[in-house]
């Protein structure tokens, strides 16, 4: 009987931890104002990250590790350090890729690329509350704030159906979840984030 009680307790605590509750319109408005206020002060940001790619046909996620650097207004460096070395830098309309020491540059005048680039930058700096671009809902999840974005752009809907951003108590993005149209998804967890250094 004691074992059953312990199992039930663990089960309901797990449910509570992962339950999602919608924010009221007042809570959502207050939260959005705090995030916008915080991101307005960010000139640059650095963070380590762990990326987990979940594919339907694999039992375990594919894990990669790296570093992210962001500089206002729209420069972003995404560097994978483990298990391979690969770096991609987004700066205005150019992409610079470094793959095992080989550098190549691409002019990014493609509409889809620009949308994805803006999406990545906005996800990193938390400035994603554009209701012209997204259907946005606000949630509490495991005592954290979560924002769910569904793109209105038909071109992007082919690739990404939903973006979930989990925010820390300091109103910074600490986790990004990108759900693809195939239901595969990628999670990016940020740690050791430093601002304006």
UniProtKB/TrEMBL annotation:
Key words, A-Z: Signal
SUPFAM superfamilies attached to this UniProt entry: Prokaryotic lipoproteins and lipoprotein localization factors
UniProt superkingdom: Bacteria
InterPro entries: LolA/LolB/LppX, OM_lipoprot_carrier_LolA-like
Signal listed as a keyword: yes
Signal peptide extent: 1-19
Pfam family, one: LolA
The protein, known as: Cell envelope biogenesis protein LolA
Native species: Capnocytophaga catalasegens
